[in-house]
Write a structure and sequence with these properties.
By secondary structure, this protein is an alpha+beta fold. It contains three helices and three strands; from the N terminus they run βββααα. It has a three-stranded antiparallel beta sheet. Strand 1 and strand 2 (26-54) form a beta hairpin. The model has no long low-confidence stretch (mean pLDDT 93).
Length: 137
């Protein structure tokens, strides 16, 4: 198991979202574009590699990855909340951004899983280029 730590000043996650549920016991409904900004994040990545044989040489491949994300602040922006009702949307954004820590703790497992898949793809693309021995000789 390899453990990597990093400090990242800002990580922005953007994409479509759809929600129909509750946040902090209040109902929330919306569909549209989202933007989640994580500031000053301490990331710990625990990566397990496995050897893969190709053309008589050994390459490294990520078998599993687990991320821990510890941001100093998170801000949320969700378009299309409450069918674009500005007053309800503004109130919900205030709630989301004032209680960012509790909300992020609920979202962290899914965010960590998604980022882990992206990082796994990047690492595997890098390690597929050269045999393991050439990286760690």
């Amino acid at each position: 198991m390899t453990e990597l730590e990093a400090e990242v000043p800002t990580l922005t996650l953007e994409g479509p979202y759809s929600i129909n549920g509750k946040i902090l016991v209040l109902p929330i409904v919306g569909k549209g574009d989202s933007k989640i900004v994580l500031d000053n994040i301490h990331i710990v990545a625990k990566i397990k590699f496995k050897p893969v044989q190709k053309s008589g040489k050994t390459y490294a491949e990520v078998e599993s990855i687990k991320l821990e994300l510890n941001p100093k602040h998170v801000s949320f922006s969700l378009g299309g909340l409450f069918n674009n009702d500005k007053q309800l949307s503004d109130t919900m954004h205030t709630l989301l951004n004032e209680n960012w820590s509790e909300i992020f703790n609920e979202l962290q497992p899914e965010i960590s899983k998604a980022l882990g898949l992206i990082i796994k793809l990047i690492i595997n693309n890098v390690f597929a280029k050269y045999p393991y021995e050439e990286y760690f000789a």
